[in-house]
Design a protein that fits this description.
five-stranded antiparallel β-sheet; Immunoglobulin-like; TIM Barrel; binds ligand G3I; about 425 residues; GH; glycosidase; 2 domains; GH10_dom; polysaccharide degradation; single chain; alpha/beta
Length: about 425
C-alpha cells in the first residue's frame, strides 16, 4: 500500500434520546403492546421511557373483559390506561370485534342475527364508553379478511354479513366521537390480494360515510422479508384519506439468533419505521411487545423468536438502534472504526479508500466524513456516494453496502486530485 498512510478514526459516540422523543419530534407515535401485570421494575421503566403509546396486548379483548356473561374484569385494562396517563402516553384500544379471544359463552352460544347485532353493539357501547375521552384510538374490527381477499367466515360475518364492519364502526363513533377508529389486519403490509380487499373496503366505507379514520397494518414479519411495496401500500391508503398505523410490528427469526440475523433484523426494522416516517399520514409504529421475554412468537412458532427490539434481559438489540435511526436519531458507532488510506498516487491525482470495520458492534447504515487540509478534491467514488463542499467530504453507503456486521467490514474507494502535499485526514464515522 503506497505511502502506508493509515489513520484509524476515533469512534464517534452519540447518546440518543429515547425513542418516544425522537418519534415526537417527527410528529409520530412510537408505541408498544404491554402486559398490564408487568408494568413495574425494568419492564415498566422501559415502557414509560421509550414509548409514547401503549396497546394492551390482551387486556381489552372481549374474552378478557367479560369472561362470564354480564360479569366484567377491567383490572388489567384500567391498570394500563392509568399507567399511560401517568406517563403522558396515548392508548390504542385493542380490539372490539374479532373472531379470536372471545368468551366461551359468546362463541358457544346460538344467536339470531338480531341478537348478535345487539351483543356487538352493546359490547362496543360498554367498552368504548368506559374509556370515553381517554383512548386515542380503537382497533374496532380486527382481521376481517382471508389471504385471498374474501371475507373471513366468523361469528360476525356469518351472522350479520359484511355489514357488521360498518355497524361496529358506527357504534364505536357513537360511544366516543373523539377516538380514531381503525380496521386492523395482518399480511396487508405489501400490495397484495388481501391489502387490496382492505383498500376496497375502506374506499367504499368512506364513500358511504361510515366512520373510518385509519387502517392498521399489523406487520408480524420475518427477518429478511419486509415487503418491497410497504411504503407504496401505506401511501395508497393515505391517498384514500385515512391514517395508517403500523400496529403490531415484530420481526421473527429462526433461533438461535446470531449477529448476522440481528443485523438483518435491524435493517428490516429500519425499513419499516422508515416507510412510516416517509408518509405524512402514517401516524406511527407500535411494536408487539418491546422485549423478547414478552412476545407471542415462541409460543405460536416453535423454534422462532428474538422478534422484538430488546432481548429477554432488557438489553437493546441492533433493532433498537435501527428504530432510533429511522426516527432521526444518530447512530452510535462505538466498536466501529474507519481507516483511510491512499492506495496509489501520481503527480496530479491519487486513489484512496476507506475501510469501515466493526467488532462487538454493527452498523445498519454509515456515513464517513472528513476535511481535506491541502486542497485535495474528490473526482469520482465507488461503493459509496461522496459529495465535497469546499474542504468537507461526506460519503454515505450505497444501497447494497449499508450493513457492516459485527466482525465484518465494508470498503469504498475514490479518485481525487492533489498538489503540493497530500496529508491523510481524520475520518469521522456517523
Ligand atoms: O392468561 C392465560 C394464562 O392464565 C394461562 O396460564 C396461559 C397458558 O397458555 O395462557 C394465558 O393466555 C394466553 C394469553 O395470550 C395471555 O398470555 C393465551 O393462551 C394465548 O393464546 C394468548 O395469545 C395472545 C394471542 O393474541 C391470541 O390470539 C397473545 O398474547 C397476543 O399477543 C396475540 O395478539 C394478537 C393480536 O391481538 C392480533 N393480531 C395478532 C396478534 C398475535 O397473535
Amino acid at each position: 500500500m503506497l505511502g502506508a498512510l493509515l489513520v484509524t478514526a476515533p469512534a464517534a459516540h452519540a447518546a440518543d434520546a429515547p425513542l418516544r422523543d425522537l418519534a415526537a419530534a417527527k410528529g409520530k407515535v412510537m408505541g408498544t403492546a404491554v402486559t398490564g401485570s408487568k408494568l413495574t421494575g425494568t419492564y415498566g421503566e422501559i415502557a414509560a421511557r421509550e414509548f409514547n403509546a401503549l396497546t394492551p396486548g390482551n387486556a381489552m379483548k372481549w374474552g378478557s373483559v367479560e369472561p362470564t356473561r354480564g360479569s366484567f374484569d377491567w383490572a388489567e385494562a384500567d391498570r394500563i390506561v392509568d399507567f399511560a396517563e401517568a406517563n403522558g402516553q396515548q392508548v390504542r384500544g385493542h380490539t372490539l370485534v374479532w373472531h379470536s379471544q372471545n368468551p366461551g359463552w359468546l362463541t358457544n352460544g346460538t344467536w339470531t342475527s338480531a341478537q348478535l347485532s345487539q351483543l356487538m353493539n352493546d359490547h362496543i357501547a360498554l367498552e368504548v364508553g368506559r374509556y370515553k375521552g381517554r383512548l386515542a384510538t380503537w382497533d374496532v374490527v380486527n382481521e376481517p379478511f382471508n389471504e385471498d381477499g374474501t371475507y373471513r367466515q366468523t361469528l360476525w360475518y356469518n351472522g350479520l354479513g359484511a355489514d357488521y364492519i360498518a355497524q361496529a364502526l358506527t357504534a364505536a363513533r357513537a360511544a366516543d366521537p373523539a377516538a380514531k377508529l381503525y380496521i386492523n389486519d395482518y399480511n396487508v403490509e405489501g400490495v397484495n390480494a388481501k391489502s387490496t380487499a382492505l383498500y376496497n373496503l375502506v374506499k367504499s366505507l368512506k364513500e358511504r360515510g361510515v366512520p373510518i379514520d385509519g387502517v392498521g397494518l399489523q406487520a408480524h414479519l420475518i427477518v429478511g422479508q419486509v415487503p418491497s411495496t410497504l411504503q407504496q401500500n401505506i401511501q395508497r391508503f393515505a391517498d384514500l384519506g385515512v391514517d395508517v398505523a403500523i400496529t403490531e410490528l415484530d420481526i421473527r427469526m429462526q433461533l438461535p439468533s446470531d449477529s448476522a440475523k440481528l443485523t438483518q433484523q435491524a435493517a428490516d426494522y429500519k425499513a419499516v419505521v422508515g416507510a412510516c416516517v416517509a408518509v405524512a399520514r402514517c401516524v406511527g409504529v407500535t411494536v408487539w411487545g418491546f422485549t423478547d421475554s414478552d412476545s407471542w412468537i415462541p409460543d405460536t412458532f416453535p423454534g422462532q423468536g428474538a422478534a422484538t427490539p430488546y432481548d429477554e434481559n432488557y438489553a437493546p438489540k441492533p433493532a433498537y438502534e435501527a428504530i432510533a435511526q429511522a426516527l432521526g436519531g444518530s447512530q452510535s458507532t462505538e466498536g466501529c472504526t474507519a481507516t483511510y488510506s491512499v492506495t496509489s498516487q501520481w503527480s496530479t491525482g491519487f486513489t484512496g479508500q476507506v475501510r469501515i470495520a466493526c467488532s462487538g458492534a454493527a452498523l445498519s447504515s454509515w456515513k464517513a466524513d472528513w476535511t481535506y487540509g491541502a486542497g485535495q478534491r474528490i473526482t469520482q467514488a465507488w461503493n459509496a456516494t461522496c459529495a465535497q463542499t469546499g474542504t468537507a467530504v461526506s460519503c454515505s453507503n450505497a444501497s447494497y453496502n449499508g450493513t457492516v456486521p459485527d466482525g465484518g467490514s465494508v470498503t469504498f474507494g475514490f479518485n481525487a486530485s492533489w498538489s503540493g502535499s497530500n496529508p491523510v485526514p481524520v475520518v469521522t464515522l456517523g
